[in-house]
Amino acid sequence: MNPVEDLSVKYSVRIILFLGSFWKHFYTINCTANLMKNKYSKKELVKLVLDYSNEVKRVPKMKEVTKNPNLPSINQFLKNFKTWNNFLRESGLEINYVSKYSKEELIKLLIKFKEQNNRSPKLEDLINKEHTPSISCFFRHFGSWNNALREAGLTINVRKDYTKKELLLLLKKKSKELGRAPIQKEMNSDKNYPTSPLYQKYFGSWNNALREANLETKYIFRKWTKKEIISVLKNKYKELGKTPGIRDFDSDSRTPGKGTVRKLFGNWTNALREANIPLKKYHKKEDLIKILKNLAVKLNRTPTIADLKENNKPSPIVFTSKFGTYTAACLSAGLIPNDGRNSQIWKSWEEHCTEMARVIHKNVEIKKNNLIENGVPDIYVEGKNLFIDAKTCGYKEFREQVKKYCKEEYRLEFWCIFKGMENRSKKVSYLYAKDLALLMKKYRRKDLAEKCYQFINNIYSKDQTTLT
Length: 468
Prior knowledge:
Mean pLDDT: 76
Order of helices and strands: HHHHHHHHHHHHHHHHHHHHHHEEEHEEHH
Strand order of the largest sheet: 1-2-3-4-5
Number of strands: 5
Shape: flat
Structural class: mainly alpha
Low-confidence stretches: 1-5, 22-36, 372-376
Largest sheet: 5 strands, mixed
Radius of gyration: 29 Å
CATH architecture of the domain at 343-459: 3-Layer(aba) Sandwich
CATH class of the domain at 343-459: Alpha Beta
Strand content: under 5%
Oligomer: single chain
């Protein structure tokens, strides 16, 4: 079997593994329950990188992990394992790089950077620059980044050893620059000053720090009790004449923040229950479909997610929980989603899919009309009994196509720009633009990957244009 045929045979298995890994990382980023933590155990760090290693099919480099926003800070690896190579050893991974830099060489590199850039280097300068020592080299030789700067006789640009007196002097200095007491955001965005969490650590709160510096405390953060919030909820219910939502609290400065409500009650629904306020529930799909149809009549077009908020309609989460996606909800209501589905977009996407299919499968035939009666699929992969149809999204069940294309041993793949409705047949699978973009990168076709993202951005653009 030649390499091309071997790659083709393994494609289906690789896609399944690849999609599983991709969606795992996607939900890790977007689900609040799995947000990045401040501290990880050794076992957790090993598991995260082993999963990433399986995804990229090789031992990851330290710089890759450092740049990857989906993985913990590199400092956590170094604190737990001292060096990157120690981490690789304990993870059972092959060591892919051994540093040969001496302490003197590292100091010379730091001094050279200072001479070229007229400032002390930062960790980020090494992370984003090729052909430089890894951060672990500096930690191994000096114990910390600041120690390395000290031994090189350079100014420390990130300090964590401030005294209370120094912090108050810097707070007053910032106040003098602004002509008023600074807010936390202003301190955090100015790299010449300590961040607000450091003040909170030393003084208990930001306002305490301002008071000790004899500065005005403009914002007083009230500590709400459950009883007070229940009272506010009841008053809001009377004022509005309907069940209040989170948005009603956000727009009223007299009410506690939604974060405070969730912290004390667990969620908004629990707060309403404890206040004996009727819940706004949309149990049936029919109720949600009716809302979309009525709003479409009012707007004279398909409502967007932004329209739901502006017209005080249920959160998009309500629709996605019932239909899978907001697009599927619109389709169920008989509305054309705001996804740019027009003949020009579809035609361009079909041409793009044809080009990607040739990269993946090599031998493909376009519009193979002699295999299926009363139907012409977009792409046929010779020797694999595989049909590929390019769609902007799954905007209907496509049962007729499944009947036509999936006879005997034939399979069908829908290549879509984004999610819509999906067919549950075992002979049908779906690939989306994001998946295809990552796949094209693996085949070293960054040009085709970029075009996938271009389609995604174009689809969701307010000013719809035609891709060429």
